[in-house]
Design a protein that fits this description.
about 325 residues, alpha/beta, ornithine cyclodeaminase, domain 1, 9-stranded mixed beta sheet, 10 helices
Length: about 325
Amino acid sequence: MRYLNDRDLNAVGMPWGELADVIEAAAGSYAAGECAQPLKPYLQYGDPANRIIAMPAYVGRPVRAAGLKWIASFPANVASGLPRAHGVTVVNDPDTGIPQLLIAGGMPNAVRTTAVSAALLRKLLPSDGRKRQALVIGAGPIGSMHARMLAELFGDTIARIGVYDKRATLGEGTPLGGDERIVRCGEAEWREAYTGADVVVTCTVATDRYIELTPKRDALLLHVSLRDYLPGALAAVATFVVDDWNEVCRADTDIERLHLGGLLERGQALAFPALVSSDAARLQRLPRPLLFAPMGLAIFDVAIAAWYGKQAEQRGLGVLLEL
């Protein structure tokens, strides 16, 4: 069994186009009914904000992989200087069940989440020559990775990427990571940036809703952190997209609050796997603002892990463990 950690994944790199291809392939398998994925259980004890989640899945062709992600989310870690999320992913041989790959670290979770966003944006952002603005709220590992992905994969389309984090100490307008397109937004600036943004990505650990603003008329809202919007701020949303209704309509997400308030029913939300497998031209005609709320599907974690496993094997990365 090959063991990999975050250093090994960094050595492989994050080619966002290829990673988005992996997500699209897994989504096609899911939409075709060639995946197995039970509803993921939450292990909770002590502080109700903490959870450890089991995410088993089998992904059919062309990926063909089975496995499990075991991911802990402890939001209070951030105040102590520790990562919020820690996880391990096991990939098994789909024919024998023998464990082949073990990946430890927080990076796989961030890569999967960002690759899902990349796959959707590839379909929804038209290549019409118009320069767009983006805003990322939350500058943790997932938010920072989204900012880099937007710059690397959509640099010809997105001219400016604002990043706001209430915990940040860098001054307003400070470039991040040496990329002049990625700029820190201060407390006084982010609301204006939000109302003018074509793409908004929320990647926070917020529990109290704080966004009360109406988005731009044709905005794409990637609601990664799931608990940021006051109900009135979503009144203008014309299209809701979820990765899986049963997964996302629970755990006090904004989608669940809308549903319990009688403002959103299951049949009103489009399914991401079928959507991302569809024709881009048709998807770009969907009414906007469009909000995508992904709870996170295990099929994508297993597919991304399997891809990194193959890349690591080709490069001779990691440590081989005896079973």
